[in-house]
Amino acid sequence: MFIIGNFIEAIAVVVDYVLWAYIWIIIARAIVSWVSPDPFNPIVRFLHRATEPVLRPIRRRLPDMPIDFSPMIVIIAIIFLQRFLVKTLYQLAGSLG
């Protein structure tokens, strides 16, 4: 059973790294939005394509405000996933290993 435990632990590590990377992508998107970036810049386009599918539904549900709080809400949700899902996967791996 230790092989399954190690596999689940590896999944937990990968999920944790992917969630951290996405947090940094959202932060970069928020910082870029403070300036007037070139919309044809490949980095700006990547940030927009990577974050807009997640931010748009949240933005639609929030009332119109001068400050966009959707990146903060997504980051809080990701932190929740890290604390709940990743920690649960680690504990599951520990109980199997």
List the helices and strands and how they pair.
Layout: H1 2-33, H2 42-61, H3 70-96
Helix pairs in contact: 1-2, 1-3, 2-3
Elements, N to C (H/E): HHH
Report, as a whole number of angstroms, the end-to-end distance.
6 Å
User: How many E strands?
Assistant: 0
Question: What best-fitting shape do the alpha-carbon axes yield?
Answer: elongated
Count of helices? 3
Radius of gyration: 17 Å
Beta-strand content: under 5%
Low confidence ranges: none
What number is the mean pLDDT?
94
Largest sheet entry: none
How many separate domains make up the residues?
1
Helix proportion: over 70%
SSE class? mainly alpha
State the gist of this model.
By secondary structure, the protein is an all-alpha fold. It has 3 helices and no strands.
Describe this structure in words.
- With 97 residues, the protein is an all-alpha fold.
- The protein has one domain (2-96).
- Helix content is 81%, strand content 0%.
- The chain contains 3 helices and no strands.
- Helix 1 runs antiparallel to helix 3.
- The radius of gyration is 17 Å and the shape is elongated.
- The model has no long low-confidence stretch (mean pLDDT 94).
